[in-house]
Amino acid sequence: MRLRNKPWAVELVNNHPESVLQDPDPGKAIDWHSRFAKPDQPLEIEVGSGKGNFIITKAKQHPEINYVAVELQTTAAGIILRTKLAEGLDNLQILRGDAALLDSFFPQHAADVLYLNFSDPWPKTRHEKRRLTYKSFLQTYQNVLKETGHIEFKTDNAGLFSYSLMSLNNYGMHFDFVSVDLHHEAPEIVANNIETEYEHKFAAKGNPIYALHAHF
């Protein structure tokens, strides 16, 4: 969902290039080591972070891990940045850019985990290639993830979940965990689950949350 443009967010993002990379050149390597206080820590990436509740909570709970929030909207990036600065989260960076270019922004096999939380379902068939679990995106994620890395995916959209199961399976991925009602049938996962803004909203209405973990 597109957020209403907030001038303060644009100004904040523009004033903090040390925390937000905006539309980086895909042909130029990014020096991630210089952007983190502890560059040798494991790296985890969330694609489509929205207002950032998930990735911010992760960064607060796990200072021993570095995180990158990938978000296309400047307003969303600004909302994440505001909290990052207030909380002093030096293990969180924000990349404002296109997820289709993800493997141009990171070294090969750099990340341990990649999170896809409540992505746009793009329900029309003609928009299939825009879905973040389409095969071209999976190829990009495979390039970015370590050989021991994995994807964690959550959605409230049954159609997108069914499509994603098929897409990942056809790509040859291996499923470590699958749930069609995360909050009620997977207590061992829910115990450590961090809700996104959308997840909290949909779960409060009694809607099932679909989830999977998979590796290449």
From TrEMBL:
Keywords assigned: Methyltransferase, S-adenosyl-L-methionine, Transferase, tRNA processing
Annotated S-adenosyl-L-methionine binding sites: 46, 71, 98, 120
Pathway noted in the entry: tRNA modification; N(7)-methylguanine-tRNA biosynthesis
GO cellular component: tRNA methyltransferase complex
EC number: 2.1.1.33
Catalytic activity: guanosine(46) in tRNA + S-adenosyl-L-methionine = N(7)-methylguanosine(46) in tRNA + S-adenosyl-L-homocysteine
Binding annotation for substrate: 124, 156, 196-199
Entries under Pfam families matching the protein: Methyltransf_4 (PF02390)
Domain of life: Bacteria
One term of GO molecular function: tRNA (guanine(46)-N7)-methyltransferase activity
Enzyme class label: transferase
Renumbered residue ranges of the record's region Interaction with RNA: 126-131
Family: Belongs to the class I-like SAM-binding methyltransferase superfamily. TrmB family.
Function of the molecule: Catalyzes the formation of N(7)-methylguanine at position 46 (m7G46) in tRNA.
Name of the molecule in the record: tRNA (guanine-N(7)-)-methyltransferase
Species: Lactobacillus corticis
